[in-house]
Design a protein that fits this description.
Chain B: Keywords: Cell membrane, Membrane, Transmembrane, Transmembrane helix. Chain B: InterPro entries: Cyt_c_oxidase_su4_prok. Chain B: It is a multi-pass membrane protein. The complex is a heterodimer of chains A (about 190) and B (about 80). By secondary structure, chain A is an all-alpha fold. Chain A contains 6 helices and no strands. Chain A has one domain (about 20-190): Four Helix Bundle (Hemerythrin (Met), subunit A) (Up-down Bundle), CATH 1.20.120. Chain B has helices spanning about 5-25, 30-50, 60-75. Classes of the chains: A mainly alpha (about 190), B mainly alpha (about 80). Chains A and B meet through helix 1, helix 3 and helix 6 of A and helix 1, helix 2 and helix 3 of B.
């Protein structure tokens, strides 16, 4: 296991790595701009957005927020335990993180199923075009995050593992990015109209 | 399990419950929107500074993230 000391105060070495942070900024700007445009359309058609928003299940959205926050908490603990050289504990926290992500996926699928059953598709109106696009893109990130988590957890538990702190932190940074995006999506889509 | 992580998690859950309470008990108004988005912004910062350990990073990354969040929040509430 590679555990050399990283100088995080160096501008080129933020926790998770500079490349991961560039990705995080690009993702946040992309989702952020889409949300600002969504709010702009919402101001143009307030009644349509209000009626559409009422058809969303904010309880499911809030439960999903808790799933992602809990999952992020376990992820932070996984990084902490890895740095303390407690590989088994770290691996356990990795699995708990994945469980949180999996529960998010299941609940989101239930929500999507209800929407499709009610005939609500991206073509329904402009609100739902944004709803489907934004939540589906976020969901793809969560699925990608789960794949990265599985791969990293497998790599770190190998007998001759070359997984280092940087790898674990990069994996964690990607996972937390999914939390950050959801924290912006949830209130705008489910609550403010 | 690190104590600061546990406290951060507790705060995040309390803020999520507060958001749910506000959105259920108050009708949609400008004040409600500012409160809801404000609470989400606090949660965003807690995750990035505590869970992602941005507090250890160079000031450039902290300022950049706060600026991006500020722009998005302003774009939403203005």
């Amino acid at each position: 296991m590679n555990t050399h000391k990283i100088d995080y105060k160096n501008i080129y070495y933020p926790p998770g790595g500079i490349l991961m942070w560039i990705i995080i900024f690009l993702e946040l700007l992309t989702f952020g701009m889409a949300l600002v445009v969504f709010v702009y359309y919402g101001k143009e058609q307030p009644e349509l957005f209000h009626q559409s928003r009422l058809q969303l299940n904010s309880t499911l959205g809030a439960i999903n927020t808790v799933f992602l926050l809990t999952s992020g908490f376990f992820m932070a603990n996984a990084v902490h335990e890895f740095k303390e050289n407690n590989l088994k504990k770290s691996s356990l926290y990795f699995k708990l993180t994945m469980l949180g992500g999996l529960l998010f996926l299941i609940l989101k699928s239930v929500e999507y199923y209800h929407k499709i059953e009610a005939g609500i598709t991206p073509e329904t109106n402009v609100f739902y075009t944004f709803y489907w696009l934004l939540t589906a893109f976020h969901l793809i990130h969560v699925i990608m995050g789960l794949v990265i988590l599985i791969w990293t957890n497998y790599g770190m538990m190998k007998k001759k593992s070359d997984t280092g702190v940087e790898d674990i932190e990069a994996c964690a940074a990607f996972w937390h990015m999914c939390d950050l995006i959801w924290l912006l999506l949830f209130p705008v889509l489910y609550l403010i109209f | 399990m690190k104590k600061t992580l546990f406290i951060t998690y507790g705060l995040l859950i309390v803020l999520t419950a507060s958001t749910a309470l506000i959105s259920n008990s108050m009708s949609v108004s400008r004040l409600t929107i500012i409160l809801i988005i404000g609470l989400s912004a606090v949660k965003f910062l807690l995750i990035s500074f505590k869970f992602m350990e941005l507090k250890k990073a160079n000031a450039f990354w902290k300022v950049s993230l706060i600026s991006v969040l500020g722009l998005i929040v302003l774009g939403i509430i203005l």
